[in-house]
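Trying the structure run again after the queue cleared.
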Amino acid sequence: MLASVRRIMTMGAVGAAAIVLVATPVAQAEPEIKPDPLAAIESTDAALPTDILGLIETANEQLSGLGIEPFLWPTAAINCSQVPGTPLGLVPAVAGAAPGPTTPPIGDLTIPKSVLNPDGPTDLNAVKKGEVLYGFVPAGIVNDSGDKSGMNVAWFNVDTFKGGFVPMGSLTNAILAPIEAQIAKLPEVIQVLANAAVAPLKIAVNALPQAGTRAAVVKTGSGTVLSLVLGSVTHSSGTCYFLPTLGIHDVG
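Done. Tokens:
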């Protein structure tokens, strides 16, 4: 019985195909359009992990542009992205550190002793000797809240056996504000020189995405310092909780 049904269906399909072939003029036949498997894959969410890797690379470049060396691995928060279509709402992020004395991305910002600066040398570095500038940049946060708390640095100096837990804040408060406070105490002639020297730093800081970006300058003392950056970032759609990321640096 089953064989008979299959035979009837097969004959019907062949007959229908024959009718279509007869009824359709050969001149009007159009070439068959074959689907492009690669294009189909790229148009789906399967291509998004590559985009996430690109976001991580961009964040690393932003940190490096500020003179901050990225940590050993990136971090991420789940169910947090403000970018539509991101798998699991993933927000990748990177953290890093820049030991002093330095003022990223300028370098050593010390005004030597001179006729204009007889009391020098004057150290205007954002990061002094025995200090570390920590930076954190997420990718996928668009509208940041006014609250810049939540991210923290946990550090331990293996040479001095000292450590601590320091909250991070905005780039302006961590980097620019301390330098501007130092400049304001200098003689007016030196202030002009100092402001000119600090101008590239302001440009670099303003070029970074401010939403979710955090920074802190920590007095770790000289030695080999182990650091963890972890915590949360609050934005207009909720709070992102980031897993710890580790860095190891020699601090002068």
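The longest strand covers residues 238-251. Worth checking whether this holds up in the mutant runs.
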